[in-house]
Design brief:
The chain is of the alpha/beta class. It has eleven helices and ten strands. Bound molecules: 6-hydroxymethylpterin-diphosphate.
Length: 288
């Protein structure tokens, strides 16, 4: 139901489908393709307009995964979702060109590359040739070491300059500007203070003119503020996503799709005075 509804409301929830044994919050839960496909369809039912399918964890210290293993994890899930008639847009969370290429051939239309096209020299060509969308994310260093004492003079202007440069690179290599999304990379080489600063001044990144993606879901900085364990961080996730929406972010990458979708629907209605009713059977636009 929510695909069109969320688009009408001006936001898209990107549901996380981690086909990994070691992701930081849901590792091992959806390693079986059938479980991952069912999870993806359920996330769509409760409000995901995009499903982000990943086969390699980016948590600090995660071991690298070969292209073969990554393909073996994500392809059956993408193919299964397509066969099941999924309505959500499919995104592949990878920084390997071979994985992206196969995923795009199988029905994905978006590449979520946490290296912002720096990880694999072939990646930009694959994205451009397929006319795929791409999410360019900021990360300081690499996942293995990124949380070891990250430093910036001004985190927001440095992340902004980085995203601007990566966008210019992608466009110069043939990726259409209209297909680019930008993400500050919450938790990727950032302290708690850096994450809060990026969220507080998000409008500066929105000023780059492309949809901003936000990924705060269940991340450790929420645990540090609230003292809550991994699977008890929905409230913190909602607070950051609603405030990011208010500051102009439009794509929200989360595990807990239903609650975040509903919070954003109410936030969007409150900001605009226009509401979109979303039920499994109807979708009605109204103004009050
Ligand atoms: N965060 C994670 C992974 N991919 N992609 C984007 N664009 N933005 C993010 O903030 C982001 C991302 C980390 O979360 P998760 O996928 O749940 O964990 P893991 O990397 O351990 O699989």
């Amino acid at each position: 139901m929510s695909h069109a509804a969320a688009a009408g409301a001006g936001f898209a929830v990107m549901g996380i489908v981690n086909v990994t044994p070691d992701s930081f919050s849901d590792g091992g839960l959806y390693l079986d393709p059938a479980a991952a496909i069912a999870h993806g369809l359920e996330l769509e039912r409760v409000g995901a307009a995009i499903l982000d399918i990943g086969g390699e964890s980016t948590r600090p210290g995660a071991p690298p995964v070969s292209a073969g293993d990554e393909l073996h994890r994500v392809l059956p899930v993408i193919e299964g979702l397509v066969s099941a008639g999924v309505g959500a847009r499919l995104s592949v969370d990878t920084s390997k060109a071979t994985v992206a290429e196969a995923a795009l051939r199988s029905g994905a239309t978006l590449v979520n590359d946490v290296t912002a096209l720096r990880g694999d020299p072939q990646m930009v060509g694959i994205v451009a040739d397929a006319r795929a969308g791409c999410c360019l994310m900021h990360m300081l260093g690499e996942p293995r070491t990124m949380q070891r004492d990250p430093r910036y003079d001004d985190v927001v202007s440095e992340v902004k300059a980085f995203l601007e440069a990566r966008m210019a690179f992608a466009i110069a290599q043939g990726v259409s500007e209209q297909r680019i999304m930008l993400d500050p990379g919450i938790g990727f080489g950032k302290t708690l203070q850096h994450n809060l600063e990026l969220l507080r001044r998000l409008d500066e990144l929105v000023g780059l003119g492309r949809p901003v993606v936000i990924g705060t879901s269940r991340k450790s900085f929420l645990g540090r503020i609230t003292g809550r364990a991994l699977d008890d961080r929905i409230a913190g996730t909602i607070a950051t996503n609603v405030l990011a929406y208010e500051r102009g972010a439009r794509v929200f990458r989360v595990h807990d799709v239903g609650p975040v979708h509903d919070a954003l629907a109410v936030a969007a209605a409150t900001v605009s005075g226009t509401w979109v009713r979303t039920t499994p059977t109807s979708s009605t636009m109204s103004t009050t």
